[in-house]
Write a structure and sequence with these properties.
Blueprint: H1 2-31, E1 48-52, E2 56-59, E3 66-70, E4 72-81, E5 89-91, E6 97-100, E7 109-118, E8 123-125, E9 128-132, E10 137-139, E11 141-144, E12 150-151, E13 157-161, H2 168-173, E14 175-179, E15 185-191, E16 194-199, E17 208-213, E18 219-221, E19 224-226, E20 230-236, E21 240-245, E22 250-255, E23 258-264, E24 280-283, E25 286-295, E26 300-310, E27 317-320, E28 338-340, H3 342-351, E29 357-361, H4 380-385
Parallel strand pairs: 2-9, 10-19, 12-20, 21-29, 27-28
Antiparallel strand pairs: 1-3, 3-6, 4-7, 5-6, 7-8, 7-9, 11-13, 13-16, 14-17, 15-16, 17-20, 18-19, 21-22, 22-23, 24-29, 25-26, 26-27
Length: 389
Amino acid sequence: MGRSRVRLLWTALAGALAAVLLISGCGSQSSGGGGTGGGAQAQAPAAKVHLEPGGGGDVNPAAPVKVSVERGKLDDVALTNGDGKEVEGELAADGLSWTAGEQLGYGKTYTWSGEATGTDGQSVPVQGSFTTVSPAKTVRATVNPTDHTEVGVAMPISVKFDQPVTDKAAAERALQVRPSVPVEGAWAWLSDKQVDWRPKEYWPAGTQVEVDANLYGVHYGEGEYGRSDLTTKFSVGRSQIVKADASTHQMIVEQDGKQIASYPASYGKDHDPELNTPNGTYMVMQKNPVEIMDNPRYGYTDVEKKWAVRMSNHGEFIHENEENRANLGKVNTSHGCINLSEADAKAYFDGALIGDPIEVTGAVTTMEPRFDVFDWMIDWEQWQQKSAL
């Protein structure tokens, strides 16, 4: 009898426990995903969208602008500015990314919109906004040589800014030179507003050159940013070098390593350092069929000279001077220019290219490297030291 009662008691307890478990199980099922009990939560969407830029302010407008998705595909994407205009962009064929096709503006707010579908079939929104930086000032730049020009073998590449650049390294990093053949060269800051690139030696004849100045969005310091990108493509012509030895009273022209002309010339006065044609490597800067020359200090104004080739902003030219014909090839009597006969001056003028080098030797003075264009009056080691990088 005692054992039967114990067995009955355990049977009752087991039944009660089963009832409790059954009630507990029914309660969990009825609460579903929306209950506060311990049931499973709704599964998160599989797709994950990445925005570049993702949000915030002071975004650089030149930064990458892109949307990508993991575990899914983009259905549509739009990036809209504050005026409601959509930024041009392209959705990749595989639906995994969208990339902007135009630059963003300074000081604007942009809003992302669109949708992606995950591998689980669930939709995920493309959403967010950001604001681009507002510069204290945008700085304009120019590049020379300009597109589709043919230049001489001494021609430097010059980038000039309309404001002084504080962060020169940032600006220089944005500049790229791509010659068609290997050419060693370097950038050098000649002032706070000008940086030039020149080869170590003269350009090889026939070189094709492309320059990219990706300056838009570059922070030059003190809240100033680049206004726009610049590009140029130019070609280097034949190699023509003027060998101007003042002591010989001749001006020799060499083309592709061979002498093609020797003109009787008169250089600046030997005995007066103020009137010398100073030693130095110049280049053809400008060509004018007629140049008006003034130097009141030496008693002349509004004097017309033909076939004038400017070689320095200090005031030196190669030009015709028929009034000095008796001294050509014999005596140096000019005020610093290289005088030729009219026929010889025209012959040289017609064959000269902007950027041709003019190497002056034999004078009693040497030109200081401070009058444009003085790139070749600085030796290569000094030139490299002028880089900001």
